[in-house]
Structures are given as C-alpha cells and as structure tokens.
User: Fold this.
Amino acid sequence: MKLSVIGCGYLGAVHAAAMASIGHEVVGIDVDQRKIDVLSKGLAPFFEPGLQEILTEGIASGRLSFTTDMAAASGAKVHFVGVGTPQQKDGYAADLTYVNAAVDELIPHLAPGDIVAGKSTVPVGTAATLAERVVPTGATLIWNPEFLREGWAVQDTIDPDRLVAGVPAGDEGERAADILREVYHPSVAKSTPFIVTDYATAELVKVAANAFLATKISFINAMAEIAEVTGADVTQLADAIGHDARIGRRFLGAGIGFGGGCLPKDIRAFSARAEELGRGESVAFLREVDAINLRRRDRAVELVVDALGGSVFGKKVTLLGAAFKPHSDDIRDSPALDVAVRLRGLGADVVVTDPAAIENARRLHPQLTYVEDRDEAIRDADAVVLVTEWDEYRRELPPEHASALTAGRVVVDGRNGLDAAAWRAAGWAYYGMGRP
Ligand code: UGA
Assistant:
C-alpha cells in the first residue's frame, strides 16, 4: 500500500522505515531539510537500535523515500501524522501548532477515500476538531496512537503489543479500520490485539498509558523516600511486591526518575486538559507524580554533596550518562543532565560521558565538560555518579577497574543499577536511591 508519514522525528522516521520494511511504499515528509537529507541517504538522524538497517534496506529497495514536499503525499492511501506535541512554553498544555500545520498542509493533497491517521499524542478532543477540517475533502480521519519506547522503537513498531484505532461511527469507520488492518498485516496475522474504538477513547488510551507508567515510577520513588528515613531497601521492596502478578516488577525501578520527550510532558498536558474539561481533580494526583519525580533529582544532588563532605565545590564529579535512558541519544528533559547541571551550579567540576548522547547534550548544555571515553571521564574523579544505566556503566565497569582510575572512592547510583556489594567490597562508599 502507498503510505505517507508526516513528521520524521523519533516517531515518524521509525514508522516510515518500519512500514517500508513490511512491504509498503512509503514517503516520509518533514519540514527539516537537514533531517530529510540524512534520511534520504539511508542514515538514521538519531540513535535508535535497528533503525539504520531498515532505513538502508528501505531506500535500497526503492520503497522508501523522504522529502520536504507535502505534494508527495498525494496518491498515498493512508497518511500518518506523527509530528511533535511539545509542552507549551508558558504552561502545561500541549502545543498543537505542528499537528494543526501538518493537517492543514496535507488537506490540499487528499483524495476522497484517503485515510488520515493521527499518531501524535494529543489532548482528548483534538481528533474531533481535526475531523471537521478533513471531512470536506472526502477523506476519513482516524486516531492510531503509538506506544513505541525509544531504544526499542523498531521492534515496537513492527511488532507492537496492541493496536488501537479511534474511528468515526458507522460504515466509514469500519472501512477505515479495515484499511488500517491491511497496513498492519503482519500484526493482524499473528492476532495482535486490535482495538477499534471512538476518537476520545483512542486519544485517552495513549495518555492514560503514559500516566500509569509515570505513576508507577513515582510510586516506587515515593517508597524510596520512605525507605530513606527508615533504613529499608526499595529495590528489595520492589522485587517483593513485583512478584504479585497484579503489580508486576517492570517500571518499579527507583532512582532519579523519568524524563524524555513523553512521560513528563504527557502527564502535564493531561492535567491541563482535565482542568479544561472541569475534571482537574480526577488527575490531581499527576501533579504529585510530577513533584515526586522532580524531588528525586534533588535527592541525587544531595547524596553527592553529602558523600563529598558537605560541598562539591572544586571537586571533580563524573556523571555516567546524559541520555534520559539507555539505548537512546535523546536528552529531552533528561534527569541525568539535570543532575549534572545542578552539580555544576554548586561549583563542582562536572564531567559527563555517554555512549550516544554527548553531541545532543553539548548542544543544549555547552557549559558542561564532555569526555567520550568512559575511563578518561572518570580519571581523577572525586565521585562517580551513575545517572543513565547503560550496560557500559552498569555491567561493564568493574569497581576494581574504576578504583585504578579515580581519585576518590565515592559512587552514587542514581539508577540503582550497580552491584552495591561488589562496589563496597572494592572499598567504595556506595550510595543508592532508597537503599541503605
Ligand atoms: C514512553 C512509554 O513507555 C511508551 O510506551 C510511549 O510510547 C512513549 O513514552 C511515548 O509516549 O512516545 P519512552 O519515553 O521511550 O517511552 O521511555 P520509557 O521507557 O517509558 O522511560 C521513561 C523514563 O522513565 C526514562 O527516563 C526511564 O529512565 C524512566 N524509568 C523507567 C524509571 O525511572 N524507572 C523505571 O522503572 C522505568
């Protein structure tokens, strides 16, 4: 099937390449000429495992192309809209400028019978508003939220755990859902749950899922705060409650909390939308989820300061990690970088290392010192702080090896990812988050 994908960021670029890899003819469209040039060469404009391979394959097969020209969308049967919905500069609500612009620019190129499939995360009610603009063209608007995780985006797109389609009522909606089933034929063939619903439910499924995940993380981080004043160990607590299948151990990783381009802004946008709907109190807890999350960054800074005797001034502190999570070069609202910036603000000589995110981090925070090589980064450090749990730091940095390089023996484990006993046995003062 011929498809267009409007927006070639973390979501759209992966979606375009993944759809080509399952046999569709796909054109990816973005306003950013630089990004389009890179993608057209079959290169990934950001770090995402597996993306490079499917881009190269797609371009070589002739099924995948990229352009800045919206007119290239004409002739496609389904047009996916995957542009960003960032947090507004002056508030919590989502900024829909890019979604509105993408749909408005697409409209002149639509033909009757086309499907416009929104993938961006939007406030509930957006699809109904956009549909008013799409309907006069004879095309059908549907909402098909995306649940991919960065770092696993290719796998999550090609083989998602569920598909959701918000469609208009009646035959038109049924026809649109059938077309979407053709698009995702490999998932449909293996009976992946395919939920057909209305616009509002589809939009809410996405924000509810992210709100739940954020709540789960903040729940365990709240337990970490209690553990810190009682001497309990939050990782053991998580293991123990996680054995209850109703709770589950995943997303109970206590530490410096969640960041990235989705969870933080999505819970804020959800709060803002609920307020608009007169139901602010229904999700008032999300404010607390946000507050707990941000407090954990303060706590990590406090641990480093205390561990270094009450002041970090003039001390060399090496941050292992800059990305908001491993297997990504994304630094949007990265807790790791936030901790780095705060420590520098307190006068520490901060060095940051990361296997993938240094270039992005340097652009945003040029005031920090970046060292690519992990061992060079920790050389002569007074303290080492794990802030992104890459395997390079979590599994592949034996404490004895670190001891030979650093000046001090202080390690703060902002992700509870290190083997505390091994670090202590090697003579290090180990500080975890919510662990004795
Ligand atoms: C999140 C959702 O997991 C995806 O399902 C969703 O599609 C995506 O947002 C989106 O809306 O586009 P992502 O932002 O890639 O995906 O990252 P997550 O894996 O959810 O991690 C978010 C943050 O939570 C990271 O900073 C991570 O370090 C942190 N985290 C995660 C914890 O602090 N503890 C945990 O136990 C798990």
The chain has a mean pLDDT of 98.
